[in-house]
């Protein structure tokens, strides 16, 4: 079982707390080049230092800013690998999947399904409400954006998924000895991590429902599928389509995307629609594709060290 791979004699919950601090610290170290670049630009141009998030995100060229933002996740990924291998003495694969090898077909299938859906919804929104969007396609700037996004956004989303749905999911499972507690905790923390996004400041804390709900559905994918592959594909597709296709002055990613949303954002039913309708349908699709069974046990059941796992749970965990 994926989550039970944390049950090793040398593994303690305090290591997960310390490991999380190390990964977060590494991400801050990864922001140092961005700080230096901003300081150099200030000296060169004589412009005042930016004092709020919106000004910081637009102080440098948008492509350069995106690169620096994503660079911190690359540094965090290195730290996560070191923490898992050196502190926990685990194979890095063990926070990715319980399978003998990472199932890239699952990652690509999830990426394709959610990527096509997300891109379709963006194009549909543009043609159904054209007054809310402007076409800002710049071939050169977009080409540079595409290279940065395609290379580095999967690193960013993989860090988030492997920290929350892999590392912390296993850590909280080790602590609570059950499945529901890590599912709830990682979802709430994931939502809380996004509370400082500019979307929340613009539309209010109701947007947290979307972020927590997204964390919940990604956690369900991970527990039901005994690995993070589907969550990895989903998250990469979600962020990549957003970065390449549509931006707005109030979104976390400021990019030279194809479209720009110029409407005044409001928090309505569209915030809860994915959580209440679209996500459940996506889970049903994956359940059909991968023949998930034992929902209650896999989402709320107790956890045991692998050698103590009842034979019925071992059988269920391989019904994929």
From TrEMBL:
GO terms for molecular function: endopeptidase activity; metallopeptidase activity. Coiled coil: none annotated. The chain crosses the membrane at residues 16-40, 60-84, 107-128, 140-159, 180-197, 203-224, 236-259, 271-290. It comes from Flavobacterium album. The lineage of its organism: Bacteria, Pseudomonadati, Bacteroidota, Flavobacteriia, Flavobacteriales. This is CPBP family intramembrane metalloprotease domain-containing protein. Pfam families: Rce1-like. Residues 143-240 form the CAAX prenyl protease 2/Lysostaphin resistance protein A-like domain. One of its GO terms (biological process) is CAAX-box protein maturation.
